[in-house]
Write a structure and sequence with these properties.
Chain A is 80% helix and 0% strand. Chain A has 277 residues and is an all-alpha fold. In chain A, helix 8 runs parallel beside helix 10. The longest helix of chain A has 47 residues. Classes of the chains: A mainly alpha (277), B mainly alpha (262).
């Protein structure tokens, strides 16, 4: 959306920066009128906290742990979703019989399953991976079905006439034609995945705090539980909230970086997507 | 969403069982498999059997627990939507109508949008505390972006010829906005509302899991803390059913408010 307009003139850069800069200034000015006991984080404190968290490596560690889980869960969920979606899109009986179950479970928010996942997998990484897999599965399934459906039937008939086997038709005709739509599902699924990991790790943090009653003593140990866990730890153990803001900014940056990578991957891997939108 | 584009159904329509019967058959089979699995595992904490979940569902329905918590969640949903609508719609309208305001406000929107609503929960916990304000704040945050972006898109999709015609006939700007731009943008706005409802429902549950004294998310967490999985799964079922019902209600609203778009 933002990159629709072409060159960056000085005036445009100023306009882009104007409101964010003004808001930060107002935030800082307003904050300095508050009592010193106030827990409201300030821009100056956030900058200092960012420096501290980056130099100690805690932020990178937490993001790395969460990213690993997202990739694992997304791989499982999206992989299964793409396979099932392909089968459902291509084989009518499969769709007819599986679709009710898929549609029913699509209504169950991944986040609602976090407590169940904790019971199944324990308050560790696996619960978060499961939630990510669950959250990324459904957009991929739905879009994979649509992807297969959007393939020009003439192409499939032509391939059939020329004696291609079903497997070959799927590989040579359906996949290339449906890939752009499938990719939309992958991007949606990845967006879900990144939101789900934070929710899962937060809830794991909230649960762990109840059961272990904070056996975690340092930011570094908390960071190894992922960014969501780290955020809950910071909320629970620190008076200064600046580090939470740093973690939030990191979450946002990671999300937009992931989406950008997927978008470039889309253009790179399936160049014809530009025409097929 | 892309179903219109995918309208070319190239397989012959399978005649046979009516849709609802296929649904019952598939879900029935699923429940049978679940029942057998629960029997095999033999631990109601890990996997409660469907019939115990059904019993719990009935108990929770009759003792009013579902009613109270669902009401708490839905109240938050309604309040948050009212706030998001009052903020997001005018903001989207402004950004869609004026290039300068778009260029000024859009950077802030794009800066905040990637930060998932759920990441706001810890700081909201610290600043707002556990209570009504936290889930409402999270919900407003999550639902406002689709609303703003869809309103902008709706405003921009207004037919230029209509605008020029209205201007030629000397209609004042405020009335052009009211009678031409807003009706034209409304379908896109409502699509934004439906999009954000799906996201909002998830965010609501997430915020209630950690930061509310009541509500469906809280109930799920509460029963899981007691290791009463049957009640927990029953609450999850309620969340799913209500999520589905919300979407149905919004679809009905869409058909009612913008009959020309559906």
């Amino acid at each position: 959306m933002g990159d629709a307009v072409g060159h960056l003139s000085l005036g445009r850069v100023l306009r882009i920066l104007a409101l964010p800069a003004a808001l930060v200034a107002v935030w800082q000015a307003w904050g300095s009128t508050l009592a010193t006991t106030s827990r409201v984080p300030l821009p100056s404190g956030v900058a200092a906290a960012a420096w501290e968290m980056i130099t100690s490596g805690d932020l990178q560690l937490a993001i790395g742990v969460s990213l690993t889980r997202v990739l694992l869960g997304f791989g499982l969920g999206a992989g299964a979703g793409a396979l099932l979606g392909l089968a459902m899109g291509y084989l009518r009986p499969v769709e007819r019989n599986v679709d009710p179950v898929v549609q029913t479970f699509r209504m169950v928010a991944a986040i609602a399953l976090v407590p169940l996942a904790i019971i199944w997998f324990g308050p560790h990484g696996q619960a978060a991976v499961f939630i990510v897999a669950y959250g990324s599965f459904f957009p991929v399934v739905v879009n994979a079905v649509t992807a297969v459906r959007s393939v020009d039937p003439t192409l499939i008939r032509a391939a059939k006439t020329m004696g291609l086997r079903t497997v070959e038709i799927v590989r040579q005709v359906v996949m290339p034609a449906g890939l752009p739509t499938l990719f939309v599902g992958l991007r949606l699924g990845m967006g879900n995945a990144w939101g789900a990991i934070i929710a899962a790790e937060l809830t794991v943090g909230a649960t762990a705090q109840i059961t272990v009653s904070s056996g975690i003593s340092s930011t570094a140990t908390a960071a190894s539980g992922g960014i969501g866990f780290l955020m809950f730890y910071l909320y629970d153990n620190r008076v200064d909230l600046s580090q939470i803001v740093v973690a939030m900014a990191a979450v946002g940056m990671a999300a937009s970086t992931i989406d950008r990578i997927l978008r470039f991957a889309q253009y790179d891997l399936i160049p014809w997507t530009r025409y097929a939108r | 969403m892309t179903s219109a584009a995918a309208g070319r159904v190239w397989r012959p329509v399978v005649t046979g069982l009516p849709g609802w019967l296929v649904y019952v058959r598939s879900m029935g089979l699923f429940i049978v498999v679940w029942e057998i699995a629960a029997l095999q595992i033999g631990n109601p904490v890990i996997l409660p059997a469907p019939h115990t979940v059904a019993t719990s569902l009935l108990t929770l329905l009759t003792n009013g627990s579902i009613y109270h918590n669902a009401l708490a969640s839905l109240q938050r949903l309604v309040v948050a939507y009212a706030i998001a609508g009052m903020l997001g719609f005018p903001l989207g309208l402004l950004m869609g109508l004026s290039r300068v305001s778009f260029e000024l406000i859009d950077p802030v929107v794009e800066l905040l949008r990637p930060i998932s609503s759920i990441a706001w929960i810890p700081i909201a916990l610290a600043l707002l505390g556990v209570g009504f304000a936290l889930p409402v704040f999270i919900l407003v945050y999550v639902s406002i972006f689709p609303l703003i972006l869809n309103t902008i898109a709706g405003v921009r999709s207004t037919d230029r010829t209509l605008l020029r015609a209205a201007r030629t006939m000397g209609v004042p700007r405020s009335r052009i906005v009211r009678h031409v731009v807003v009706p034209n943008a409304l379908p896109a706005v409502l699509t934004g509302v439906r999009l954000s409802a799906g996201l909002g429902w998830m965010a609501l549950i997430a915020s209630e899991l950690v930061g509310a004294p009541s509500g469906l998310g809280w109930a799920i967490q509460f029963y899981s803390g007691l290791f009463r999985s049957a009640e927990m799964v029953a609450m999850i079922v309620v969340v799913a059913v209500l999520g589905f019902a919300t979407d149905l209600a919004l679809r009905a609203l869409q058909r009612w408010v913008t009959p020309w778009a559906t």
